[in-house]
Amino acid sequence: MRTSGMDWLRKLLHPDSAPARTERLGVAHARQVAALHHRGGFARGWEPAECAALIADAGVVTDGVFSGGGSPAGFAMSRKAADEAEILSIVVLPARRGAGLGRALLAAHLARLAGEGVVQVFLEVEEGNEPAERLYRHFGFREVGRRKGYYPKPDGTRATAIAMRLDLA
């Protein structure tokens, strides 16, 4: 029996999970994106109006991952500039982490960016966020720098950001 390329990709990314559906998110998803961002563990969550403005921006690409429901279980958002993009945020609901949704989401998001002519993708991740670092390294991101004291923490301290880059072409 012949399988489609997408079935092969799903099995490669996470062979034991139910397939996750990814799609581009629109302004109608702004409240859901804001709620996901608030639950993502960031020191300052985004408000629905901020999310709506970002999603509406022609230079911003926002994808959601869905698994067994009408609301996204996660999202990835990037801002494009020429042939580069920066991942602004990627979030999967804490209760859904470890099920392969992050891999499916990031794979779809990177494929969309590549399809839109992006050849380099940058991101920053908080030092010590090992699950996120593992995910990014799985896709080939590599460290290109550090920003000490970049991320504010709820206790008033500041954490180092690891800057990473992926070459898509």
UniProtKB/TrEMBL annotation:
Its EC number is 2.3.1.-. Signal peptide: none annotated. The keyword Acyltransferase applies. GO terms for molecular function: acyltransferase activity. Residues 20-169 form the N-acetyltransferase domain. Keywords: Acyltransferase, Transferase. The keyword Signal does not apply. It holds the Pfam family Acetyltransf_1. InterPro entries: Acyl_CoA_acyltransferase, GNAT_dom, YpeA/RimI_acetyltransf. It comes from the Bacteria. It is an enzyme of class 2 (transferase). PANTHER family: ACETYLTRANSFERASE, ACETYLTRANSFERASE YPEA. This is GNAT family N-acetyltransferase.
